[in-house]
Structures are given as C-alpha cells and as structure tokens.
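ok so for the tutorial part 2 we go from a plain amino acid sequence to predicted structure tokens. step 1 is just haveing the sequence, like this:
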Amino acid sequence: MKETRDRKKTIFLFVRIGVVTAGILWGIYWLSGEQRWSELVNTFGRIKLSFFLLALLVFALCQAVIGFRWWILLRMQGVKISIWMAVKLTFLGLFYNNFLPSSIGGDFVRAWYVTRHTERQFVAALSVFVDRALGLLGTFLIAVFFYFFYLRGKGIIQPAEAKSGAGFFSFFAVYRYWFYAAGAIAAAAVLIISLNSKGRVKLRNLIIVIRDWVEKIWRKTLEAAVLYCRRPGLLLILVAMTIVIQIVTITGFWFLGVDLGVDVSISYYYIFFALSWVIGILPVSIGGAVVIEGSLALMFVHLAGVGVESAIALALCQRIVWMIASLPGGLIHLSGMHLPKEFSVDDSQAMD
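step 2 — the prediction. this is what the tokens look like for a chain of 352 residues:
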C-alpha cells in the first residue's frame, strides 16, 4: 500500500514538473516570434532598481508580518514558540515553495517542523492550514471588494482601448470549440469507462476516494472552527491584518508595474493579483509557477488592455521578487536555525 502511495506521489510530482516545463517551453516558443524577445528585454531594461527594491522590501516585510500572524494563531491554542521561530519557519516554507521541486509544499514543511517544537502537535500543525485559510479569505475579500465597489458596472475596457485587440469574452469565444471538444472528450471517457466492468470499479473507487477526501477536508474545517472561534474578536483582527498585508504587498507591485508601463487603475492590480494567487493554489504545478504568471498576464492583457510584453514582465518580476525574498529560508535550512534546541513545554491554557 505504501509503495502504491509513493508511486502516485512520484507520478503526481512529475506531472507538476511537466506542467511547469511545458509552460516555460511554450513561453520561449511564443517569445521567439515577432521580435518579442527584444521587446521583453527592452521592457525589463526600463525597470528602475529603486522600484524593484521597494517591491522586494515590502514583500519581505509582509512575510515577516505573516509569521507574526501565524504566531498569534499558535498562541491562541497555547503553543508557545518564539515570534522569531515562527518567522523563520515562514521563510523556510516560502523557500520550499519557490525553489524545491518536491511534492511537499511550504505549508507541510511548516506544519512538520513546528510539531518538533511542541508537544501539542495536532493544533500546531492545524494552525498552519488555518493561517493559509486566513490568507485565502483576505485575498478573496480584496478581489470581491475592489470589483464590486470600483469596477462593477463599468465593464471591461472598451475595444478601442485594448492593445491586444480582444476582450476577455472574445478570447473565450475564439477558442470555444476547444472547450466544447474537451468537454465532449471527458464525457466520452467517462462513458467508455462505465461500459467496462473493471472501469466501473475504478470509477467507483475514484468517487469513493473523492468523497472521503471531501469528508476529511470538511471534518478538518469543522475542527478548525471549534478550535479558533473561541476568540472571534481576535480572529477578526487577524482577518483585518491579512487584508492590510495583501493590500500593502500588491501596492508594492503596483509601483513596480507602473515603472514597467502597466499604468492602469490600481483596482485592476488588487483584483488580478488576488485572483492569480487564488488560482495558484491549484496543485497542478510547482509553487504555482507558470499558472500564476500565465493567469496574471492574461488578465492584464485581455481585461485591462495592457501590452503583452509589459504584462509578462510584471508577472515575471513578481516571481523574481518571491524567489529573492525566500533566499533567507534557504540559509535557515542550511544552518539548522529552524530546529529546536530542546523540546519545549507548552502551557495547558490558550492565550486570552
């Protein structure tokens, strides 16, 4: 059984690496035509070092604040590690997300190592995923707020303003037959599998696995609600803190984007960056690579009329900022600063 699980993890890892590789190769192929390489290089050449360093500094500081937010969640359950250790583990997880092509994400790394610092291992590990849920909630709220209060009813850019010459819905209209074909192939595959007895068994097992997974996620969600809703006021403060962190981070990228020529309303930034981060959690690539960059660039091009080269440059700059900011996590890993010197003893009571 263990060998089967290991084999599935290995296959899934290669699939994710394949998605990233295919995306990079396609990007190289696309850029090789119509002098796009030179235009992209010229776009990067316009970057002022001061704006890039500002975005980098803002992102790194926000990651440290995220570590502080996680520390508060740990304290709420009586897990007593230092703020400094929470920040170090946060940067360690960031390093794993951005540099190591493994099937173990940064959240699992944080969850694993924080349990080495406490006897309250379950709530310590659970706090990592509650912290992630808070981040996703804040990101979603930002996208919804700026859409409904700043862009709703105004529509997408007018066709005359679009440098790409096509709107978002026009883009899907052009490729609608591909979507129809994909849906037909998927339906045919399910039908063919259902006609075979072994196929029906496998399909039934797959449904059972999915059902069990959904039940497990739901159960974990309820457990998290029971554990953390005892401090609703503090949770609201953490949600507000999350929203501020995300807004400040995106604002840093807005300064960089304007310098790159992506000079559109900052509301587009708040919506597009937030949505690309949500899309990036889909486990189809390594650290959301290619998926985040591709979705972000597509939204800026097809929904805001930004030039293709400028949109791609902004998406790549975000990834570069992430990678540079996560380098301290590599140093923490190599030096062993994330490991406990001794086993800590936690108080039995949660933080008031």
